[in-house]
Structure formats: C-alpha cells, structure tokens
Specification:
It is built from seven helices and twelve strands. The protein is α+β, with helices and mostly antiparallel strands. The strands form two sheets. Strands 2, 3, 4, 5, 6, 9 and 10 form a seven-stranded antiparallel beta sheet that branches.
Length: 303
C-alpha cells in the first residue's frame, strides 16, 4: 500500500514545465473528540506573477496579451508544548513562512535545473528561519519554553511537486488506485523499525510511538528537513495530514475515501469525520489537492 522513500536531490531535468495545471484543493481542521483545543493549523495559498500587455506596437506573436505564472502551496502543522504552546508554535511556523515568502524579492515560480536546486536550498533555509522565530517567541514569553511543531508542505511548480517535511505529519500521493507515502515519520519508533529493533506490527502500540526525533522546536537541536521533488500526472491527488488522521484511520481506508469522492472538499470532510468516528483521540487536520494537467497552448509566448 505505501512506500517510505526519501529523495533530497533536485530533479536533473524538471518535468512537465510545458503544461497547464489546475489545482482543486480543500482543507479542514477539527479538534477531535478528546481535546479541549486545537493545536493544528493549515494553510492553502496561491502565489501569482502576472504579465499583461497594455499597449504596444510589437508584433502580436512576440508578446502574450496576458500570462500568469502561479504555484499553489499547502501546509499542515501540528503543534505541541502544553497549555497554549502547541497552538502558538504551529501558528507561528505558518505565519513566519508566509512572511518570508512575502519578503522574498525574486520568487521562483517556474523551474529549470538550476532553479530547482535553488528552491530546495531556499526551502531548507526557510525552515531554519522558522525555528529561529520559535526561539525568539520563547525569549519574549518564557512560558512557551519547550513548544514545537511538525510542518509538512507541498508546493507545485506546474507539474513538479516539492514536498518539505519535519516531524510526523505526512504527505501522501494517490495515483492509479495506489496510496504512496511521500514523507518519513521522524519518530523514535520509525528509527527503531529501520534498525530492525521492532517489527511493523509493534509500531502501533509501542510506548515511544509519539516521541519525535525531528521537530521544529526551541531547544537548539539541528533540524532535519526532508525535501523531495516528484513529477505530477493528470488525476493525481496529494494529501497532507496530521497524525490525528493516521493514528485513527488505516491507509487502506484513506485510499478508499480518495478513490470514491468526487471533490477535494468532500474528501477532506469524509477523512475528518472518519477519524472522529473511530475515536477522535487527537486534533485532526487534512488538506486534499487534486491536479488536472494538460498540454500548454502552443501560442503561449513570453520572455
């Protein structure tokens, strides 16, 4: 059903850049049935750069009348830290990311081989800046000491999807009836499994299953940002979710929902309802994105 894979290299040649991508996306967050508050946050955003020719005596085939380059970003963050710390951590992480993007003067919205590597370098640096922002928040308010958050992000550059990840929230790809995990849980039990110390069957009940080995936190520990590019295909679905979903709902049932719902909104609603119907022990947050990919118009030109 799933593959745990990790790929930190930028694509040698970005794929699917001469295509038009339409993204249908929907997110939902719920506190669950046993928590008093919600420490999860999510964000869906579209970043655009637009060219519009207002008046010219240039030949019409040399300039587009109007062209827009855009990327769609989705983020989920699951905070931790007791009291209000977890809510503050996840909120601060996403807010800091938005601030960094808005202050970036030369945003990369279309990939070539060189810019793909630059995107990965920038993304790792942005996670480091988020960590510094969390540390600064603790200096301003020492009662937040020990707070931290997971963060899983997906952003498409036309038909290339970058996934960036710290913690145990997850990104999945659903393609041709198969659900593939795109991220590795940064937990102690995952490390034990990879070392052969425990079996997959023992993971679900292991006492350290919630102990994170990777987190955006405030204690000075270096973070391990997992970065991965994949090429998207027409009809792909990408799911980002916190562990409030994956602790309650097996991956086979997640795949069934993605296969049998006709909109991203219905899929996100059904996944949250399913987590709550099976116990709702934690906050649950999901973002479902569906991609339609078509060949670009041959008369689309630009600089």
């Amino acid at each position: 059903m799933t593959d745990d894979t990790r790929d930190t290299a930028a694509p040698a040649e970005p794929s699917h850049q001469d295509v038009v991508v339409t993204v249908e996306t929907s997110g939902l967050s719920d506190r669950g049935l046993r928590r008093d508050g919600n420490e999860d946050h999510f964000l869906i955003a579209r970043i655009d750069r637009t060219w519009r020719t207002v008046q010219t005596n240039m030949p019409t085939d040399m300039l587009p009348s109007r062209e827009t380059e855009s990327v769609t970003a989705q983020i989920v963050a699951d905070g931790m830290g007791g009291a209000a710390g977890g809510e503050v951590a996840s909120r601060t992480a996403i807010g800091t990311f938005v601030d960094i993007v808005l202050r970036t003067p030369n945003l990369i919205l279309r990939l070539d081989t060189q810019s793909a590597q630059a995107v990965m370098t920038r993304m790792a640096a942005r996670f480091e800046q988020i960590k510094l922002a969390l540390e600064a928040a603790v200096r301003r308010d020492p009662t937040l000491a020990g707070m931290g958050t997971t963060m899983t992000l997906a952003v498409n550059f036309r038909g290339d999807l970058l996934v960036a990840h710290v913690g145990d929230s997850r990104a999945y790809l659903y393609r041709h009836g198969r659900l593939e995990r795109l991220t590795r849980d940064q937990t102690m039990v995952q490390s034990l499994l990879e070392k052969g110390a425990i079996s997959p069957e023992e993971m679900a009940s292991h006492p350290m299953r919630h102990l994170l080995s990777g987190v955006l936190g405030t204690k000075g520990k270096p973070i391990d940002v997992e970065l991965r590019f994949i090429g998207l295909e027409d009809g792909d679905q990408v799911l980002l979710c916190t562990d409030g979903l994956t602790e309650m709902v097996p991956e086979s049932m997640i795949a069934d929902v993605l296969a049998n719902t006709d909109t991203a909104d219905r899929a996100s609603r059904q996944l949250v309802d399913l987590a709550n119907s099976r116990g709702g022990k934690d906050n649950v947050t999901v973002v479902v994105s569906r991609y339609q990919i078509a060949a670009a118009s041959p008369d689309s030109v630009g600089p």
